[in-house]
Design brief:
CATH superfamily of the largest domain: Glycogen Phosphorylase B
Order of helices and strands: EHEHEEEHHEHEEHHEEHEHEHEHHH
Shape: globular
Number of helices: 13
Number of domains: 2
Strand content: 15-25%
Distance between the termini: 22 Å
Length: 352
């Protein structure tokens, strides 16, 4: 049996990132430790002076105890940076996942903020041996904004767990769901306007639940007549419950490197209404009903169709479930591990 790949993983956000990037990182680590212990020897890398102090918390988070070391303490066959860029530079082969290039697509007005947000990406462009993009759109953005060699970018779509999921819709108080952090690009404002533009019969029947960090007030007050509940940042378990109970999922984002909530909703057989921007059509395929990004009137019309046309909703549910079944975390983990092994072998071959 060959020696396992020694993989160092930048784990600095593993305990506190509840967004899609955090779910991505934890899902791949769990897949590797469950399925490929003979192929990969993982070490979690943290900036703490005493890594042993966080080892138990990391083990609880992942459900498995892995070696924990300080960043930069030693070299590995490959070091992986999953957090949208590199904040430190390891020795040896470095692979970074760049989920999107939003700090360049919409740079902050404040120079110091802009510099801090862009620095991890510029470090990646300068020092990473390979970059992983979540989508072909993401790959084109990396080339466009970072001038990185496209031949050194690997597109590996994200995924979801393939387990069976069931809807538990409560007909007494049905709702539409939005999942995302309060960022300008997520365009929650267009969704709020669309909820207010629905016919009165739908406005009074359906509420909107908004799940994500920093939501209330970020896009102004809900329009008159629209019922909106801000759930805030929720646990993975609560998020699953919200997906399972939703009558429709709306994703109005103007800029995404992937759009993981789309797949998550589809896995729960929730009909998806989404904007036609960036990577979203690439991810959702023919399993979503699209509207022009930023067009609240068109979004209201699309949402009305899904809420009133049972046959359309059923078609979207079936197409979405098939779409989600084709994109799993194990598939993503296998493709990523294959890339690491190729990168390590290429490095070894060039040093002989």
């Amino acid at each position: 049996m060959s020696t396992p790949l020694r993989l160092g993983v930048d784990a600095r956000k593993l305990l506190d990132d509840r967004r899609g990037i955090g779910r991505y990182t934890r899902a791949l680590l769990r897949s590797w430790t469950t399925r490929w212990r003979e192929r990969v020897a993982l070490t979690l890398l943290v900036p703490d002076l005493l890594p042993s102090l966080v080892a138990s918390r990391l083990a609880t988070e992942l459900g498995v105890r892995l070696p924990v070391a300080r960043t930069g303490a030693r070299a590995y066959d490959v070091t992986w940076y999953p957090w949208n860029g590199m904040t430190w530079v390891a020795r040896g082969v470095k692979v970074a996942t760049v989920h999107d290039c939003w700090p360049f697509a919409s740079p902050a007005d404040d120079e110091s903020i802009r510099r801090n947000e862009q620095r991890p990406f510029l470090t990646t462009a300068a020092d990473a041996d390979t970059i992983i993009a979540d989508s072909a759109f993401g790959r084109s953005e990396i080339v466009r904004h970072l001038a990185y060699d496209p031949a050194r970018i690997e597109v590996i779509p994200l995924g979801i767990d393939p387990g069976e999921r069931h809807s538990v819709i409560d007909a007494r108080d049905p709702y539409v769901l939005f999942v995302g952090q309060a960022e300008k690009r997520k365009d929650l404002g267009t969704l709020l306007s669309a909820m207010g533009a629905l016919p009165e019969s739908l406005r009074t029947r359906y509420r909107l639940i908004v799940a994500g960090k920093d939501q209330p007030g970020s896009f102004g007050p809900p329009p008159p007549g629209a019922r909106v509940e801000f759930a805030g940042e929720v646990s993975d378990r609560r998020l699953g419950e919200l997906y399972a109970g939703a009558c429709a999922f709306v994703f109005p984002s103007r800029y995404e490197g992937f759009g993981l909530p789309i797949l998550e909703a589809m896995a729960y057989r929730v009909p998806v209404v989404a904007s036609d921007a960036a990577s979203i059509p690439e991810v959702a395929g023919d399993a979503a009903l699209y509207f022009p990004a930023g067009d609240a009137v068109a979004l209201a019309a699309a949402l009305q169709l899904v809420l009133e046309d049972a046959q359309l909703a059923d078609r979207l549910r079936a197409a979405g479930r098939a779409r989600a079944a084709a994109l799993t975390w194990d598939r993503c983990a296998d493709a990523t591990l294959n890339l690491f092994e190729r990168a390590a072998k290429m490095k070894a071959d060039t040093t002989r």
